[in-house]
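To illustrate the input format used throughout this study, we show a single complete record. The first block contains the structure-token representation of the backbone; no residue identities are included at this stage. The design step must infer an amino acid for every position from geometry alone.
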């Protein structure tokens, strides 16, 4: 038997046939049909299922379950996408629409960060864990929890939003409408904003040299690479970023005391430069005064596909 996993993003739809051991047997990546309504997305998903079945030499009867990961909130029943702003989905009955196409096949929906945490549990950094935390550091900050050896979707089924824990009272305005959220300080967007300010200031820095004075070319990787090279301006940014990130993680850790904390997203690609310092700083700030296990997420771009496919086992 096989499972189908979909990871729907605002730019691309990733899809795969996954076996029970979390191996991806067939994988696809196609553009998301932006602005064409959820019905068009459902049609695209249907076409992907049949084309992948042909490629994998499988039949419709081989499908044990279909899972869909979306970047937004799901209602507690797991049937409706309440809001997925990047997709233009608002109160979309996605499960019902797909059930019309795939009768008698169980269909599951999940937030993409929750699905990613589940993928880490089955095939990645959380294997064997009872309690674990995933933080994804990209344009925003997402996160997922493993509690009791299962994906935790909130006590009332509304999910968890680690990126919207308030880190600073009356801090910068967040995209969610609150101020001082973890996302405003710990995302790649924050790093970019600080790098842009350095370029605009006209200061002599490696960041400015790398972008040839064009602040529109600044990205998080350039800022982090400049810090690795010892650029004083970039190091100031990096040190402040690490202070924010380590505070956020220490706060989460004191609540959950997790066995493993995994970091995914583009910022995690900074590697040992980030993780060695992060482990030290969280240990210094931790109430428990022991070294937490903070590691890179393993599944990365496959996390949504694998996590969605394994939602069947998380009931």
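Output of the design step:
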């Amino acid at each position: 038997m096989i499972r189908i996993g979909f990871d729907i993003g605002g730019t691309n739809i990733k899809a795969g046939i996954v076996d029970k051991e979390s191996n991806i047997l067939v994988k696809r990546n196609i553009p998301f049909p932006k602005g064409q309504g959820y019905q068009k997305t459902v049609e695209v998903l249907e076409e992907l299922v049949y084309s992948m079945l042909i490629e994998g030499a499988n039949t419709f009867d081989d499908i044990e379950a279909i899972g869909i990961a979306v970047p937004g909130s799901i209602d507690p029943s797991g049937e409706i996408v309440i809001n997925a702003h990047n997709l233009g989905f608002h109160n979309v009955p996605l499960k019902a629409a797909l059930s019309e196409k795939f009768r008698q096949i169980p269909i599951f929906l999940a937030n993409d960060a929750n699905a990613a945490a589940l993928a880490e549990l089955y095939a990645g950094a959380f294997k064997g864990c009872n309690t674990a935390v995933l933080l994804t550091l990209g344009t925003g900050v997402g996160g997922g929890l493993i509690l009791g050896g299962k994906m935790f979707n909130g006590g009332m089924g509304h999910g968890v939003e680690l990126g919207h824990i308030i880190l600073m009272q009356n801090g910068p305005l967040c995209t969610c409408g609150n101020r001082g959220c973890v996302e405003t300080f710990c995302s790649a967007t924050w790093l970019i904003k600080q790098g842009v300010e350095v370029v605009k200031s006209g200061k002599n820095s490696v960041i400015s040299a790398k972008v040839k004075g064009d602040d529109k070319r600044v990205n998080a990787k350039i800022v982090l690479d400049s810090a690795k090279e010892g650029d004083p301006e970039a190091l100031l940014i990096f040190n402040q970023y690490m202070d924010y990130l380590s505070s956020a993680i220490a706060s989460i850790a004191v609540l959950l005391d997790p066995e493993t904390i995994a970091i995914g997203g583009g910022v995690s690609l900074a590697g040992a430069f980030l993780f060695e310092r992060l482990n030290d700083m969280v240990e210094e700030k931790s109430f428990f005064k022991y070294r937490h296990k903070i590691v890179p997420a393993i599944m990365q771009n496959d996390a949504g596909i694998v996590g969605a496919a394994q939602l069947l086992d998380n009931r």
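Structural context for interpreting the output: The chain has two domains: 2-121+302-314, 128-297. The domain at 128-297 is CATH 3.30.420.40 (Nucleotidyltransferase; domain 5).
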